Amino acid sequence: MTEPIIPPAPEVLEAPAGPYVYDYAASPQRQVVMPKTVPLPSYRTYLAEVKAAAEADEAKWKKMQADYETAKAKAEAEGKDAPKPPVRPVPRKDDNDLKTPWPQEAKDADLLLLQEVLGAKVEEIFEQAGELTCQLEKGAIHEALTLCREHEGLRYEMLADQSATHYPAANDFAYSVVYHLTSISRRKRLRLRILVPEGFVPESACSVYPSANWMEREIFDMLGISFANHPDMTRILCPDDWEGHALRKDYPVVGWGQRDVAFREDRGGMIERIALQKAGQLGINLKQPKAD
Amino acid sequence: MFKNEEMEINLGPQHPSTHGVLRVKLRLDGETITHCKPVIGYLHRGVEKICENQTFFQGQVWTDRMDYCSAVANNLGWAEANEKLFGITVPRRAQYIRTLLNEFNRLASHLIWLATHALDIGAMTVFLYAFREREDILDMNEAFCGSRLTTTAFRIGGLREDMPPGFEKMARKFLAKFPTCLEEYENLLSENRIWKKRTVGVAMLSAEDAIALGVTGPVLRAAGVPYDIRKAFPYAAYGEMDFEVPTQTAADTYARYLVRMAEMRQSARIIQQCLDGMPEGPVMAKIPKILKPEVNEVYHATEAPKGEIGYYLVGEKGSTNPYRFHVRAPGFINLQSLPKMAEGGLIADIVAAIGTLDIVLGEIDR
Predict the structure, then answer these.
(1) Of the listed ranges A276-280, B31-35, B296-300, the one predicted with least confidence
(2) What is the pLDDT of residues A9-55, one digit of tens each?
(3) Quick one: CA torsion of B185, B188, B189, B193, rounded to 10 degrees?
(4) Chain B residues within an 8 Å CB radius of A217
(5) By C-alpha distance, which of B200, B197, B248 is closest to B222?
(6) What's the pTM value of the predicted model, to 2 decimals?
(7) In sequence order, what are the residues at sequence separation of 6 or more whose Cβ sits closer than 8 angstroms to the Cβ of residue B186?
(8) What value, to the nearest 5°, has the Cα angle with vertex B244 and ends B241 and B245?
């Protein structure tokens, strides 16, 4: 048996410094800005915010009046003209086609039915922008999905979409998982939502709605939430050996390990060759470009 | 050697009939497929992540590049989802022009489906005819927004500009000749013995399976479910249009062909109604230049040529970027049904199954 002919390893060239090399580690695409708020729509939070705003407004108005009284008393004492009485500021009205959809109290029969049947497992129901939202206790999602599909008054036949959002600024949960159900026969849509802490494994929806299969794989791939009793809990879009979960808020837009070399600025193709060589992926023409 | 053994083969990723870079792992018993597993992700660009790090307006160029055959339909869903998030009312004229362009786009997408699907199965001539008409539609895209494929046609709140002069004439000219073109395709295919042998009874997907697997669009309607979002949850100007939802009950590849051909006729009808009833007025709503939402989440679904395209947006108070940007791509969900269609069939028929799903890998992998 003859020895296989191994070509001699070409020498590793040093990447030229200067204008060719762009520092990707310092690029804005690699910098992560963590969100500071928890934008989770909720009627309860909205009411609390409105109440707080009204109280702040009232306090401001009282302060303005008190200031006026003291200024008036002072002016009278000094024998000057009384100052102008304060005018309560009116919120400015914009003349445009924007009408912000605020959360509203749930009046839809489906939401009320869900609350009636599931009782304390329903954490919150509300409507916003014409969409119905029902937030559930995280352990009750399978029961709720089964109910939505099987109940005679609900009949949500199709799981149209399932997705998740990362909320790193929240204290008692890390992700929200949303299920968008469609009732073809009744022409209705419904959103179920659960709030999931880091490491919690929610029950898979696959046994109720088989269409959840790939959607849950995508959530696992992108956010790292795994689902219990899922037939094939593997990555779907990224390769199996990918590190990290791209749609988490602590993941940079240009992922780690990607594009450490600025190919665009490398007009001679020099850096690309060196990068390939360093990565051990030789196989292309490695002739050194001419120096002109 | 292969007497009792099952053979495993890979279809793709680089295969002309997979419409991009789709890899299908197949296990074969002779010529029969016993196991089928689609492997995707070769075109993954992280569209959702990129859009979360850009402003609301900048997301549109990425929606063009998801399903590049139906960019206008993607733009429409994106624009309407944003308008729902901010609570914007769009002027009626803009709604009509959007509907018009969207239906032209549906024609273009169905034509490219017809061309490539027929080419996959072995009918070459339709390919050339269908591309001839698609060219006219792309010319109209170019007249309207300057680009042919990646249109970026709409803006949040309406349109950037009104229809250019001469656009209506162009559209009417196209509509006048399009029915004869459809007849040409149907003459070539509908009663063609080879075409029928390759499509009738191939890649069946029953209505129960389709609904369970979340399949939407012409594939669902060919199984007898009259679910069209344009009718079920009307958006843009579809509430004012008079059109039918064509359905078939055979649930095979031939039924899907018939549904799509009938849909093209209905699209032409809608375009005609848009042109005839075009209202006057502005095409852009009065909105501020920089949009900042309140805390809100919306899921807005529209009927793209391939099925239901949904955008799930979460708005953060005072931020100019969407906090979460998720796309429910019709191709991604529809492709889940490929094993159901292909298993038990012949290996030659998987090409028909992939073609009839009308997939575009750009939107599946995003």
Answers:
(1) A276-280
(2) 666 666 555 544 455 566 666 778 888 888 888 888 889 989 999 99
(3) 180
(4) none
(5) B248
(6) 0.85
(7) B261
(8) 120
Give B48's contacts (C-beta < 8 A, 6+ positions apart). Answer: A222, A247, B325, B326, B327, B366
Choose among A221, A178, A244: nearest CA to A32: A244
What are residue A130's phi and psi, to 5 degrees?
Answer: 75, 10
Do the Cβ atoms of B324 and A191 come within 8 Å? no
pLDDT at residue A285 tops 60? no
Q: What is the pLDDT of residues A105-144, one digit of tens each?
A: 888 888 899 888 888 889 899 998 889 999 999 889 999 9
Tell if the CB–CB gap between B211 and A180 is shorter than 8 Å. Answer: no
Q: CA–CA distance from A230 to each of A204, A209, A217 (Å)?
A: 6, 12, 9
* Local confidence band at B191 (pLDDT 50, 70, 90 cut-offs): confident
Cα-only R_g, chain B = 21
Q: What pLDDT, on the 0 to 100 scale, is given for residue A268? A: 59
- What is the pLDDT confidence band of residue A274, given thresholds at 50, 70 and 90? low
Q: Across-strand partners of B86?
A: none
Query: Shortest Cα distance from A72 to chain B (angstroms)?
Result: 39
Beta-carbon contacts of B299 under 8 Å, excluding residues fewer than 6 positions away, are: A131, A160, A161, A178, A180, A189, A191, B81, B310, B311, B312, B328
What is the CA angle B321-A239-B299, rounded to 5? Answer: 35
Can you give the pLDDT at residue A119? Answer: 86
Spatial CA neighbour of B248 closest among B238, B262, B268, B234: B262
Does this complex have an ipTM over 0.95? no
Say if residues B12 and A209 touch (Cβ distance below 8 Å): no
Which structural domains are found in chain A, ordered by start?
Answer: 106-223 (3.30.460.80)
Backbone angles phi, psi at B185, to 5 degrees: -65, -40
Q: Which of B52, B286, B365 lies at the smallest CB-CB distance from A96?
A: B286
Beta-sheet strands, E only, within A76-203: 104-105, 122-128, 131-136, 158-166, 175-183, 188-196
Nearest to residue B97, comparing CAs of B167, B27, B197, B192?
B167
Q: For chain B, give the number of residues.
A: 366
Which H or E element spans position B188?
helix B167-189
pLDDT-above-70 percentage for chain B: 99
Question: Where are any strands of DSSP class E within chain B?
Answer: 7-11, 23-29, 32-39, 154-155, 158-159, 296-304, 307-315, 322-328
Task: Say whether A214 and B333 touch across the interface (CB within 8 A).
Answer: yes
Binary contact (A97, B312; C-beta < 8 A): no
Q: Tokens for B102?
A: 């969207």
CB hemisphere CA count around A6 (13 angstroms): 4
- The alpha helices in chain A, defined as continuous H runs, are 43-78, 109-118, 141-150, 212-223, 270-278
pLDDT of residue A17: 53
Per-residue pLDDT at A261 exceeds 80: no
**CA-CA distance, B107 to B118, in Å (whole number)?**
16
3-state secondary structure of B314: strand
